[in-house]
């Protein structure tokens, strides 16, 4: 029940962020044309990319709740991770577009409507700020990456608001693109960190919050356990982890000892709240083809 509630909460957060972003993108396009602001229209295009990626996140997050079947035996949780990867790529492409536009505006300054910028900046900060807040406590990598789309927009609109206020008093054309460059570089840095984490999970790296040596040591300290091999720990999508191992026990162990080892190992694994674990118990003189893997 707890996992189901978390999944539902995660999906709802992304859904709210999607509809808020979609509605604001439409408003931006109309408003940008109305106040004749290229800056707002170009940001609307960037937000449209965000909306598409948030929609993709929402779809894949919903997909990730499906139970396992013969096609996906571990279930669909990694679809959420796929959403994080797609979002990272879209955000990088969008950021590169913003950098190109900003450099172009520094080389060829353009006049903007300061009052129009202030009006849309206030709405932008409120809408994107609320959506970012909804996703800020997200546990899945999908939510974390999606939240950076919105953090980028909030910071962008704060910059637009500041620039709009300054331009109301003094017309400094390069101020807007200069701030956009700084914000986008900051966002890109964080996106690359998230992308690195996402790829690490995709490549089935050991989750950073788990100490594989600690778990191995605890298992080896169990009575009758002789050795452990073919031990693997990985994460499905950054939140739910999986454990597998082969454990060799003393040859003189009887059936009761055999069962006790299994129960003791499972008790240890329950401390780490693995989503799934598989343990094969073997006698010490038993030949295992996977012993050296």
Biggest sheet details: 3 strands, mixed
Instruction: Classify the fold: give the CATH topology of the largest domain.
Output: Alpha-lytic protease prodomain-like
Average pLDDT taken over every residue: 79
Q: What portion of residues belong to β-strands?
A: 5-15%
Q: What are the low-pLDDT stretches, counting only 5+ consecutive residues below 50?
A: 1-5
What does this structure look like?
The protein contains 8 helices and 3 strands. The chain has 293 residues and is mainly α. The chain has 2 domains: 2-202, Cation efflux protein transmembrane domain (Alpha-lytic protease prodomain-like, Up-down Bundle); 212-283, Alpha-Beta Plaits (2-Layer Sandwich). A 3-stranded mixed β-sheet has the order 1-2-3, with helices on one face. Helix 1 (2-34) runs antiparallel to helix 4 (114-136), helix 2 runs antiparallel to helix 3 (78-107) and helix 3 (78-107) runs parallel beside helix 5. The longest helix is centred in the first third of the chain and has 33 residues, at 2-34. It is elongated, with a radius of gyration of 26 Å.
Describe the secondary-structure layout:
Layout lengths: L1 H33 L3 H26 L14 H30 L6 H23 L4 H29 L5 H28 L9 H9 L4 E11 L5 E9 L5 H17 L4 E8 L10
Parallel strand pairs: 2-3
Antiparallel strand pairs: 1-2
Helix pairs in contact: 1-2, 1-4, 2-3, 2-5, 3-5, 3-6, 4-5, 5-6
């Amino acid at each position: 029940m707890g996992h189901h509630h978390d999944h539902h909460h995660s999906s709802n957060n992304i859904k709210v962020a999607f509809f808020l972003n979609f509605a604001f993108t439409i408003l931006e396009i109309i408003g940008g044309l109305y106040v004749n602001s290229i800056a707002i229209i170009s940001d609307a295009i960037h937000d449209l990319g965000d909306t598409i990626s948030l929609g993709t996140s929402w779809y894949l997050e919903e997909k990730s709740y499906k139970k396992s079947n013969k096609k996906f035996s571990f279930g669909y949780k990694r679809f959420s991770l796929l959403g994080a990867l797609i979002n990272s790529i879209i955000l990088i492409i969008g950021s590169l577009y913003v950098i190109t536009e900003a450099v172009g505006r520094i080389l060829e300054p353009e006049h903007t409507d300061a009052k129009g910028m202030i009006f849309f900046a206030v709405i932008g900060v409120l809408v994107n700020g609320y959506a970012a807040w909804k996703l800020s406590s997200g546990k899945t990598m999908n939510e974390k990456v999606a939240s950076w789309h919105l953090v980028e927009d909030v910071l962008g609109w704060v910059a637009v608001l500041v620039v709009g206020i300054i331009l109301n008093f003094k017309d400094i054309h390069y101020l807007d693109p200069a701030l956009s460059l700084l914000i986008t570089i900051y966002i890109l840095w964080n996106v690359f960190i998230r992308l690195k984490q996402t790829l690490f999970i995709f490549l089935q790296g050991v989750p950073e919050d788990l100490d594989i040596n600690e778990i191995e040591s605890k298992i080896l300290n169990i009575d009758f356990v002789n050795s452990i091999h073919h031990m693997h720990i990985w994460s499905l999508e950054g939140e739910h982890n999986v454990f597998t191992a082969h454990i060799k026990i003393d040859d003189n162990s009887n059936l009761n000892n055999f069962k006790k080892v299994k129960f003791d190992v499972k008790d240890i694994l329950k401390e780490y709240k693995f989503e799934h674990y598989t343990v094969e118990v073997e006698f010490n003189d038993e030949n295992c083809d996977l012993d050296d893997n």
